[in-house]
Design brief:
By secondary structure, the protein is mainly α. Helices cover about 75% and strands about 0% of the residues. InterPro entries: DNA-bd_HTH_TetR-type_CS (IPR023772), Homeodomain-like_sf (IPR009057), HTH-type_TetR-like_transc_reg (IPR050109), HTH_TetR (IPR001647).
């Protein structure tokens, strides 16, 4: 197994264990054992379990952002663009349930330092801030502080994905799909 493969095996194993057992109940030894590497190898890649958690969080956020930004087709209609991104984001969550469960458990957790959450929000998910600023500039979105709006959007996303992960058939129902976006949009519109 190459160095890159070992690191990815550690991240994949940590993801599964953190979701199923919790961060504090998961030992570095159990992560290494299940990944098929020596515990020393884990510490070669990550200085601590906290660093492993942070890198896992950032790498999944980046994967999520890449999936969303690859679907951005900025047009003149902010609401249509936002609805498209909302649907892409929820589709990603439903296609990646383990990663979304990780977000459900750790996005607001004290296990993730606030500076790491801010890095994810302000650089990795910067497209959200750009969308908000675009909407404020055109007067379509309310004149609330942008950072608070981003956090509110994130919370609404987590709530909606929790609902649709628990009720996956509802995402196929246009009434529920449209209602989830309408609630999201109405919380921000001017």
């Amino acid at each position: 197994m190459s160095r890159t493969d070992k690191k990815q095996a550690l991240l994949d194993t940590a993801l599964a264990l953190f979701v199923s057992q919790g961060f504090y109940a998961t030992s570095t030894a159990s992560i290494a054992k299940q990944a098929g590497v020596a515990t020393g190898t884990l510490f070669h890649h990550f200085s601590s379990k906290d660093e492993l958690m942070q890198q896992l969080f950032l790498s999944i956020k980046q994967e999520f952002a890449d999936a969303i930004t690859s679907q951005i087709n900025q047009q003149s209609d902010l609401k249509a663009d936002t609805q498209h991104l909302w649907q892409v984001a929820i589709n990603w969550a439903l296609s990646n349930p383990l990663k979304q469960e990780f977000f459900q458990q750790y996005s607001m957790s004290p296990s993730i330092p606030s500076e790491i959450r801010q890095q994810a929000m302000n650089s990795i998910l910067s497209f959200m801030g750009e969308l908000i600023l675009r909407g404020k500039k055109t007067g379509e979105l309310a004149d609330y502080p942008p950072s608070l709006m981003q956090e509110s959007c994130h919370g609404q996303y987590l709530a909606a994905t929790r609902y649709f992960l628990d009720n996956p058939n509802k995402w196929q129902d246009e009434i529920y799909k449209q209602a989830s976006f309408s609630m999201f949009w109405n919380a921000m519109k001017a």
